[in-house]
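Thread: "does anyone have the structure for this chain?"

Original post by V.I.:
We have the sequence but no experimental structure in hand. Need at least a predicted one for the grant figures.
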Amino acid sequence: MPSPEAQPTHGLLGDRDLRRLLLPLLLVLAGAVVGSFQGAAGAVLVLIGFAWIAARSLRWALPLYIIFSPFTAGLLVHHHHIALSDAMAIIMALVLLGKYRGEGISGWWERFFPRAFRGPVVLLLAIAVISLVHAESHSVAVIKILELVEFFVVVVAVAAELGTEAKAWWPTLLGLFGLTTYLALDGLEQFLLGIGPHSFEVFVGHVRAFGPFGQPNVFGSFMAQTLPLAIALYLFGPRGRYKPWLLVVIILDAFSVWSSISRGAWVSDIAAIGLMGIFVGVTRGQKALAPYAAYGVLLPMVLFGAVDLLGHVDLSHTFLADQLRGRTAVQRLLSITSTTEYDTQQRFLIWGAALRAIRAHWPTGVGMGEFTLWIRHHMPAGLIGVPPHAHDMYLELGADTGVVGIVAIIWLQYRWIVASVRAVLGRVGQLDAFPYAMALGSLGVFTAFIIQNWVDYMVDHGVIVPLLLAMGFIAALTAAHARPAPHE
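Reply from O.Q.:
Generated one for you, tokens below.
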């Protein structure tokens, strides 16, 4: 059973936890406002309020972490920037440690390393630490290792703490889809009105939507991961007054995936929604396929058409363009299979460099998060600039941590898919509406993340949040099934 704090009543005003947290929530809000003109003071106020909230209810702390995660606001400590979400993760970890201090090390081990993903996560962290042997900058490597701990240990543990009940998860989902709505509207403005850097320009008078992430591929990845979860909850989740809003989220989300003009995000969602459709047909029958196809296939196709048509119209000026010019979204989609694309050629050069790094440092890698430092000294001819990563999860971790890092991430991804498929098929027991929808959506999240990371590396703040929530839910569901019945 979930802990008592994970069992609220429905509705904002009826939630006892929320009523007790109004003062610290106001403090967080005040800190966010102050931070807009006095960063350090605002950050301190936010963290004081957050610590107050976390001490009383991790269930309400997690959505705040989600909301702050895409933004760079934070504190400068000893010349190192600590984002607010980083500090929030530290606070949540301390609260969870205190909550289960009576269980000792074995209890902490069970909480922070859920059984469903324990083996590959421990292996990934161990090889990341070993990679310090050849790290050019130990500070960079340590920061990246701490990020792995924040994501795959702390946030997953806090999410798993919510259990599998809908009433425990709705504040977190409110935070996730509230953030999604804000990001989508931000991206919509950027795309339609051409608000953004020259390098993001597409079509005529438009830019690729990028939100606060600063990069369209990252924006597209967040939206691509969130969309399967929104569709699953809308179609198969429990009834409620939130349904119309969730439909709005789906529309904005799908439009955002297309308007990011990220081919990796496009393919990842096509794969995720296609795979989910197979399991919907197997578990819910042919009758469920029609509404699923309407919202998962037909609606995104209509929105893709809207993005393509808007590409012919210049909305960034006071008049409509009288000529059709610029490359269309259809042409961009068809370019997926082209090896002559300029950006594709650049990625080939980056991938080749990553392979050389793996061959040269196959036992331990060049240091966690240090492929970018390595390639500075080994720039291939024709590469126009230093890439932020290897543009492939397997090559990035292989270059950073050696071949064992590749084994660890493949093992972890295997566990994601197996655990979520088992849940969707009912192998962990008969699921009610909410856990079924969450398990189905989690399968989609995992698939989208895996597919896009063939051509990107999206282990970063904000963008990885949907994946971590999916991991936490599946870990909780697996643990609930493994737990012996009361009469045993």
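V.I.: this helps a lot. The radius of gyration is 22 Å.
O.Q.: and DSSP finds 20 helices and four strands in the chain.
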